[in-house]
Design goal:
15 strands, single chain, 288 residues, mainly beta, globular, 3 helices
Length: 288
């Protein structure tokens, strides 16, 4: 009899932990209601090689806190603060300091989100910190920059709710990104193929496990500062980016995201042409 109760309990537990495969879900951002707060720990790194310069790496590690403020005109206004900021930047054999990065630590800025969910513009919270604006833009308008309403493109692309095992495709074009501090705007385009791998219940919350394969094309504009001498690199690259996500369905927030990939391209610097590969890695973890 004890074994029978154990089997019944086990079956109940399995049905509780793993959600029905027939259930369908749509993944959109939770409410941007005034007062809501989101905190994350983020690691971000990109590296590549350039002839005559060598290995170049831009790495950053920080905590990000986002607080939703009241709307301002047509924009949703968010207060964003970076703390515990560290860098791991290298050009050749030299370690490179990011003085903007040091100055931005624990200094808030405002993100103005347009009606489509994208960052329209960024402003330091105080005029005295206006000199940090370029640094804030590079921190938030980068290759990972999310859509604050529709992070999986389901609304924009009229995607119907998905069951476990189903996939959907979204595309993007002419998305502005800043590859490193001091660089002009680059433009990204491509395609995401998302797959809902499973849904589990953890601590009473439904968590979606989603993977994505991104086909990424970038029209690159990169400025590299070598001991005060600026080198301008331009070129086009193509690559494959692999993404793993844990998403809190009811709260509508990222719990975890890991982005790893490579892109190859043809580039030009000082009239010379060369090929190189970009290696990128980004990890985001929500902090409760």
């Amino acid at each position: 009899m004890k074994n029978i109760y154990l089997i019944i309990f086990s079956l109940f537990f399995i049905s509780f932990v793993f959600c029905s495969e027939n259930e369908k879900y749509i993944f959109i951002r939770g409410s941007l209601s005034e007062g809501n707060e989101y905190k994350y720990k983020i690691e971000d790194k990109i590296s590549f090689n350039v002839p005559g310069i060598g290995y170049i790496q831009y790495g950053s590690f920080f905590n990000s806190a986002i607080k939703v403020l009241s709307k301002e005109g047509a924009f949703h206004k968010l207060q964003a603060t970076l703390t515990d900021m560290k860098t791991d930047n290298k050009i050749g054999n030299m370690e490179v300091m990011n003085y903007y990065w040091l100055g931005m630590n624990d200094i808030p800025c405002y993100l103005y989100i347009d009606s489509d969910g994208w960052i329209d513009h960024i402003e330091p919270s105080k005029k005295e910190h206006g000199y940090l604006k370029d640094g804030f833009e590079q921190a938030y308008i980068n290759s990972r920059k999310p859509n604050y309403f529709d992070p999986f493109g389901m609304i924009q692309h009229n995607i119907t709710p998905k069951a476990v095992g189903e996939s959907w495709i979204t595309t993007f074009d002419s998305v502005k990104i800043l590859i490193n501090l001091g660089s002009p705007v680059s433009y990204a385009s491509g395609k995401n193929t998302y797959t809902l791998n499973k849904v589990k219940v953890k601590r009473g919350r439904k968590i979606a496990y989603i993977s994505s394969v991104q086909e990424l094309n970038i029209d690159n504009r990169i400025m590299v500062d070598i001991a005060g001498v600026e080198k301008y690199i331009v070129g086009k690259s193509k690559g494959i980016i692999n993404i793993k996500i844990q998403w809190d369905i009811e709260a509508g927030v990222f719990l975890y995201e890991r982005v790893v990939g490579t892109s190859d391209g043809d580039f030009e610097m000082d009239g010379e042409h060369f090929t190189t590969r970009f290696d990128s890695r980004n990890i985001l973890r929500r902090v409760e």
